[in-house]
## 1
Amino acid sequence: MSKKIMLITGGSRGIGAEIAKLAANHNYHVVINYTHSKDAANILVSDIQSQGGSAVAIQADCSKESEIERLFKEIDQIGTMDCLIANAGIIGGQNPISQTTEKQLKELFDINVIGLIICVREAVKRMSTELGGQGGKIVLMSSVAARTGGIAQEIHYASSKAAVDGFCLGLAKEVGNVGIRVNAVRPGLIGTSIHDLHGGMEVIQKWAAGVPMGRVGLPEEVAQTVLWLCSEASSYVHGALIDVSGGR
Ligand code: NAP
């Protein structure tokens, strides 16, 4: 495989799908991971291929260690991974703290935090120059909710993203001298179906009044930042938490 390989967890829809399209335009071989959206993932692969790009879809539940390990082994068969975009995530329900359950928290943290960390572990095992790898770039998908606490009744989500930020800062210290650059992107209000949980676009358009730029962001705008973080143009950017939030 002459092209650089980029794995995007949760690449079938929303922000991940826009990263996949942009990465294919930048000559990456894109691995689009998904859990349930087989049709969306396959359509995305076909779209990319019809534009002359290179992509494959691989199903794996990134909240489960065994499935993450299988995903990385399947990618080993394709070639050497250059970039991991740990993007898969969920809000994990909407309810006040008084009604929060252990089951809900475990499901949420299994994907947003534990699965993300296990994906990074598998990537570092392959990328680290200390372990025989050729280096690489890792981008973690956090959220401005990590900094602001998010919205009422979704504070479990904000706390999971705060864990991602802390992980990013520490990981940067651990892997900075073994050829790996790691950063986190913190999107604000971005127009994707993740917001269906609390009323969809109609509701978030109203919330946009509280964004200094006065509008909802586009998934493409997050994708541009991710691709920049994977490029040589950001060669000294490491351990950064980068807001893509219209000033929110
Ligand atoms: P989305 O449109 O709901 O898409 C979520 C993606 O994650 C889908 O591709 C989904 O796959 C995948 N996914 C969910 N659980 C998974 C699992 N267990 N294993 C593998 N893939 C899984 O969400 P989005 O808005 O693009 O969000 C992407 C990331 O950005 C998330 O981490 C989110 O927290 C973060 N973020 C989003 C916003 C925003 O306003 N949209 C703001 C801040 C941060 P399936 O299609 O198979 O279900």
## 2
Amino acid sequence: MRQSGRSTDVDSLATGLARDRFPLLARTIGDRPLHYLDTAATSQKPEAVLAALAHFYRHQNANVHRGLNTLAEEATEAYERCRRRVAGWVGAPDAAGVVITRGATSSLNLLAHGLEHLLLPGDEILLTEMEHHANLVPWQMLARRRGLQLRFIPVRDDGELDLDRLPELLGERTRVVSLVHASNVLGTVNPVAEVADRSRQRGILTVVDAAQSAGHLPLDFAAVGADFLVFSAHKAYGPMGLGFLVARPEALERLEPLEGGGEMIEWVDLESSTWAEVPRRFEAGTPNVAAAAAFPAAIDLIEELGAPAIRRHEAAVTAYALDCLQDLGGLTIYGPADSERRGGLVSFWDPLVHPHDLSTILDRHGVVVRAGHHCAQPLHRRLGVPATTRASFGLYTRRDDIDALIEGIRDARKVFAR
Ligand code: PLP
């Protein structure tokens, strides 16, 4: 076992935080213990979330906002409680500004559609070269429909955004800036508050994709200062099929709904309809009530451990992983060298073993990583590699997970050196 400078300062490195509350982490892969290093794809779920999901289906299972009966009232209360809990957790000024969606991707599509009527041909949307496809393709679709220009903040070789270019990129026609808080490939934590501030001074709307930061970095809507913040529950220890769009209610008023149907209306005639108040205007159809009923249990855990402690732990794991990977030699490691400047993940390229082969061999060691372009093809083109291997961490990650990763890479290199 390695002893590494900064990383040994954090006791939790040996044990993880609250690891025993995550039942899946006790399973094996073949005869090996599981080393789950794919939290950026989806986090594991604590027992309390699993219990809350089961509780909903065992005891409530009713649609929301529809029935005047005990089950429907309890289901509606659980659903609305989630909205209030999320608002409190991320410091949203008003629960009426929290739209419950299917995930970060749905939230971004909702936004790209919802803002369309405010934009004119020739207007510009500013993104970055490090965006996940979820924060790229919806804007491309909008640009195609509306005749808009997309512009991009470049990524520097050190994995940081080149913000020196911002004055020239924030032009007369820029209407929206949408950027990721913590990159799912580079790990870079972007200065979103600074970008939001500089955009606001010019009357430009800002969107922050917090898919990789919610549950991992302290997140405060007011401190970020963006108009819109989006994230998914499943990367923050909650269930799949649930996400959020957080805004001030007045900002939501400016959006057109994307989906029409039940629940989002006030009055319907055969020829036309009027919309319900925000945020329900954006919640057509039956939502994932069970997931919403269960997510507060994940927030409880995050708040019990404390966002700063989770951040400290994940930064320590990242520092340890960076040290170990660097010591292996021969790898190209992407993103900022300083673990304080990045979220809890490391992506790398090993010229000796393709990421797909590496991930297959790591699986034999019980080590689960992600190999590929991680839904960021333009960024990989910018990095000059077709794919990377990504190890990503959560509050439960331990030092032995990283040690197993390193042992697995050594083994893969032996196999491919033959
Ligand atoms: N944005 C970022 C930075 C992501 O990493 C992801 C998922 O990996 C998404 C958006 C999309 O999240 P979801 O698939 O939960 O909608």
## 3
Amino acid sequence: MPATITAFARSPDRGRGLARDMRVRWALEEVGQPYEVRLVSFSEMKEPAHRALHPFGQIPTYEEGDLALFESGAIVLHIAQRHAGLLPDDANARARAVAWMFAALNTVEPPILENRFAWMLERDQPWYAQRQQVLDDRVRVRLAELSGRLGDAQWLDGAFSAGDLLMVTVLRRLGAWPVLDEYPNLCAYVARAEERPAYKRAFDDQLAVFTTSAPDTLTGKGLEKNGDSSDV
Ligand code: GTB
């Protein structure tokens, strides 16, 4: 039986691959595992049936036989541990790849999300300009550090790994803010990842959900108009 994941029935990002099911789809494509997708609405996510899978009432979830998982990082790690292609065989290299997974989610993603949340939810506030400076600086510090570490390499530590997969999804959360342009090697890193056939398949599949779903009342501002202010 293929694994089943959950994704937004109507993603607020309009299929730009920013919702976290994209990480799981991409990982499954990288390791060549088939999967099924159960689409859930915002209200269904908060129902007991979904909360039994995900205590916080979110997507993505992952079901495989008796196993039910939540948290995109844990799901990607599980896939990478079960199937070849996302973690090196060498024990030390494997440990370093896992360190990059944690770095993506614990060190690089938080300042990016804080910045993007503030822009989305607080940019009309009189104090926003001052706060924005601090938040922008925090992101630039991390990007500069990451850029310095990546240097001229293709990937963060040798071959492409689950660490790169998560890092690229995190960097893509910068969205329309062109700050990444200040770090040409990071731009090239993201572009290189987006060229991977597995990435393209995952992206196309999540985009197809949006393009084939019925129009709704979303506005150009996105999540805050759609009842999902908990995370973007
Ligand atoms: N830490 C968890 C994980 O990594 O799995 C976080 C999961 C999470 O935030 N899920 C979001 C969700 O279910 C969707 S991905 N939100 C609904 C809710 O909380 O009620 C976050 C997301 C949403 C939208 C965009 N976007 O529009 O660009 C990007 C990312």
